[in-house]
TrEMBL record:
InterPro entries: Pyridox_Oxase_FMN-dep (IPR024029), Pyridox_Oxase_N (IPR011576), Split_barrel_FMN-bd (IPR012349). This is Pyridoxamine 5'-phosphate oxidase family protein. Pfam families: PNPOx_N (PF01243). Gene3D superfamilies: Electron Transport, Fmn-binding Protein, Chain A (2.30.110.10). Residues 28-147 form the Pyridoxamine 5'-phosphate oxidase N-terminal domain.
Amino acid sequence: MLTTLDQLETLYGLPQERALRKEIAFLNEDYQAMVKASPLVIVSSSGADGLDGSPRGDVPGFVRIIDERTLAIPDRPGNNRLDTLRNLLVDPRIALLFIIPGIGETLRVNGRAQISIEPELLQSFAVNGKPARSVIVVQVEAAYFHCSKAFVRSDCWNPDKHVERSTLPSAGAFHKRLNDGQFDAEAYDREMPERVKATLY
């Protein structure tokens, strides 16, 4: 097992200068373009109960650029576990990974976050008359674009490689197994499309 930084660097070598220069402490014009084009961001946080990585998605640009060092992410109705928000209350560190369909490069943003419930800010994120439940305001500390190798290796954007939903357990099946069989999986799956539609915002 690797146990020291020296062992790690001996195995992999040192990063090239251009890999180091990709990391900056703000969102330049190119990095802002990636945020605006992204409909999906993975939000990672850390708290007293452990780590969390949760997806947030909406129309491209739903993560608002306040300025080159500040982002705002609306939080919508969910399952009320509040894992991300609980973590941010005790540890403001946050990591974001912006994903753009069909694009190999991703954007990583690290920073510190606060949870805002300022009425005007919540209302500014309203959809169908429904304001955001809260807004995660991120002070950017580092931004870095990842190359496309992960998506090239995975062939993730190739529609010929997309997995048929029926080959995996349904959401209802997950719940049924996790509840020792005492769950109506068929009804849950049948009603899910309308339920999701009604509770998006």
